[in-house]
């Protein structure tokens, strides 16, 4: 069983480790009290072990009282835990946290407002009045590394972000759009740049709260920027030398290592980026 408290999961340092840089999820045996909570079946591994998420409503100071944290135990959100866990642990935590958010926000029938019931091992909520069923939704979003004719990378700061916090552009896919069209529209709307040669790179589940990030690379022929002030506070083309200098001088914080944004940036940069992150 994996306890999920709000958007956090329990973790502990591995035996012999001196820090949480080498940590694992805290899993436990089932308890009778689990029957009173929402549970979600997460699957079975190659060794026949079954995994179930137990969803707690508490997310504040009382949260730690609901789980028996071992020595060197701590509750971490996915941004902190994702870069530490191995692939199996990250998959469990990502699914569990995403499902916890869905259950918190879909407790009532969208047709009649009745309280829904949890069925099918936590993967469906059914209305007891009209039988309507709700299923977990994933919202597709594009994220793109845009380069100009000099192979400079475009980074931007969102209107609500602190100074120094910059990343590649991203946005949700709208109804009726192809992924490539969404890339072109978002870049055009946010910074006034037209792109071509849109190429798929990677994808990443991003349960903040329920997205699938689809990463692309694209080229711009004209680097002139016209920003949408409602979305973008600043944007800038970076050469590799400019980027390295901004990182070294502490003027720029790169996205977290758990994010596909960091993967795109490092793919352009040509290697790992050592910096403070956000």
Summarize the structure.
The chain is of the alpha+beta class and 278 residues long. 20% of the residues lie in helices and 32% in strands.
Overview of the structural elements:
This protein is of the alpha+beta class. It has 2 domains: 2-105, no CATH class; 139-269, Nucleoside Triphosphate Pyrophosphohydrolase. Helices cover 20% and strands 32% of the residues. It contains 5 helices and 15 strands. The strands form 5 sheets. It has a 4-stranded mixed β-sheet with strand order 12-10-14-13, with helices on both faces. Strands 1-5-4 form a 3-stranded mixed β-sheet, with helices on one face. A 3-stranded antiparallel β-sheet has the order 3-2-6. Strand 8 and strand 9 form a beta hairpin. The longest helix has 19 residues, at 87-105.
